[in-house]
Amino acid sequence: MSSRPSISDILKVMDSFRRQKKASEKIIEIRRDPNIDEATMISIDTDLGETAAVSGKIAIALLRLKDTVIWQSMLRGGTATDQEWEIVRKDYEALCSSVNEFHSIINTILGRFGLSADDFAADEA
């Protein structure tokens, strides 16, 4: 990861998140299966609750990036101080960390059924 994330870097992270959200739709289908036992259903619900919390962290990181003065300046082709870039870098790292956490939770759930979020990436290509 570069110390100065670009708009392209952020879009790549969000594209990854979008594909993972698509995989999470499969979890909803699995949960609706009448053959799923109650313990598995409760476990899925707990993990899905975690994805909601992580989605909130992703939204906050995106809002912080959007609201950062340097970010607004970048969109207009401006320059920034090293301190301003440090704020953007930290917000970008928080975004990446949260997206990775979301991916991990989705893979944990899907792994119980022999699946992975990556299984659904081909559907998006």
Secondary structure elements and pairings:
Blueprint lengths: L6 H25 L6 H30 L1 H7 L6 H30 L9 H4 L1
Helix pairs in contact: 1-4, 2-4
DSSP strand count:
0
Number of helices, counting only DSSP H or I runs of 4 residues or more: 5
Shape: elongated
Query: What class, by secondary structure content?
Result: mainly alpha
Description of the structure:
- The chain is mainly α.
- 77% of the residues lie in helices and 0% in strands.
- The protein has helices at residues 7-31, 38-67, 69-75, 82-111, 121-124.
- Helix 1 runs parallel beside helix 4 and helix 2 (38-67) packs antiparallel against helix 4.
- The chain is elongated, with a radius of gyration of 17 Å.
Keywords, separated by commas or semicolons:
single chain; 125 residues; mainly alpha; 5 helices; 77% helix; elongated
Short synopsis of the structure:
By secondary structure, this protein is mainly α. Helix 2 runs antiparallel to helix 4.
